[in-house]
Amino acid sequence: MHRLYSLAFGAAAAALTFTANSASAASLTRQPYLQRVGPDSATVAFRLDASCVPSVRYGTHGSTDQSAESADAGRNHAIVLTGLQPGTEYSYLVEACGARTSPVRFSTAPVPGTRQVHFTAVGDFGMNNADQRSVANAMLGRKPELFLMLGDNAYSSGTEAEFQNNLFVPMAPLLSQVPSVATPGNHEYVTHQAQPYFDNLYLPTSPSGGESYYSFDWGHVHFVSLDSNCAGGQAPAYRCTLAAQKKWMEQDLAASDAPWKVVFFHHPPWSSGEHGSSSLMRREFTPLFEKYGVDLVLTGHDHHYERTYPMKGNAVAPSGGHGPIYLVVGGGGASLRPFETGKPSWTVVRNDRDHGYLDVKVEDGTLTAQALTPSGQAIDSFTLTKALPSPEQGTGQPGSAQPTTPAPNPITRDPGLPTPPDDPDDLGPNAPGCSAGPAMALLPAGVLVLAGALRRRRRR
User: Fold this and answer.
1) What pTM value is reported for the model?
2) In which band, very low, low, confident or very high, does the pLDDT at 413 lie, cut at 50, 70 and 90?
3) Alpha carbon of 235 to those of 158, 160, 185, 229, 245: distances in Å?
4) SS (H, E, C) 46-114
5) Which among 92, 106, 105, 111 is positioned nearest to 39, based on CA atoms?
């Protein structure tokens, strides 16, 4: 199985290389990666080893009969494709300085409200090692519509060179074919308060936080990315503050009528791993998750997999009650860390032995999630269900979903909920950083073009 993954990964990587038409042709020092993909637009970013005015050729049904040219010459480029059709597969290639890449494919976001969404998520992977490549290639094999990066995307300090070598090189096949969004980890904040992170990614934005925190809709799922480093005071005040982020998030969640809500950031409110639970994130944000019906909260930071029962306050939600489910998905490539304490009563399942990722499909009122190893073995699986009105009636404001199969395989029945812990602070250590051994419903095309131009100017 690993050999098949390796062959598929190599084939995808080969498809990204340039074919030279002349001795002076350029080559890509960074392969294309998809950013800010919406129903009618997409950004294709890449880097060259020579200065010229490149273009992206693209089209449907395997053709590349349309073209979008970069705004100017240079080596760093982010070309915006506009006028695309929602939920449609496109082929694209890069032409630059007399050379071109082989075409690869991606799909645009579906029509807003579409009741079928497929995404993957993982954090703590930016190592450029075999485990990271295996996880990335396995995700690509699942053919998700969207990939959520949960932080510590470029070890160990989030430098420019580490983004290149530990993110864009090993994950090039995945990032060229699957749109990605990210949240910063504490390791990104080691270098210039995460400036290389913001320089290298083209993310959605919010009015008060820019790319630090933002939201977007994909189909009938509302996604919110928070910056837990900012919440902990690591960001410069001009970029992000706890108060501004919290105020924005409440307004954003209150305004969303999407039937499913997913929030992702780096530091987990609930974890029994080495770093433990972030008391700050739990105190400041989890009451709002509960108030506005957030279904899943995805985090990294601790290098393991863990899923809680539905939580309310500092305890497991009462039987039959509502509450968000918290997941630590930190097995993307960094060294796994063994649990040093027993399994808490609020944890359904945890795993410190396998690298892996989360694969989530949301169809109508059913959300099905699996934590998978690169070989396809299920570490955990669960299903959430909720009653949705017919599309003609609108989405309304349904409450949080509850798991219908909350326990890991091979258990197939509801094992019941444990007694909430007597001591709400009995949650393990709360370390602010890793040891040595991160509102937009996807920007309209015109705003994207302006944002892209500003970002290109900044990157020079």
Assistant:
1) 0.84
2) very low
3) 14, 18, 12, 7, 12
4) EEEEEEECCEEEEEECCCCCEEEECCCCEEEEEEEEECCCCCCEEEEEEEECCEEECCEEEECCCCCCC
5) 111
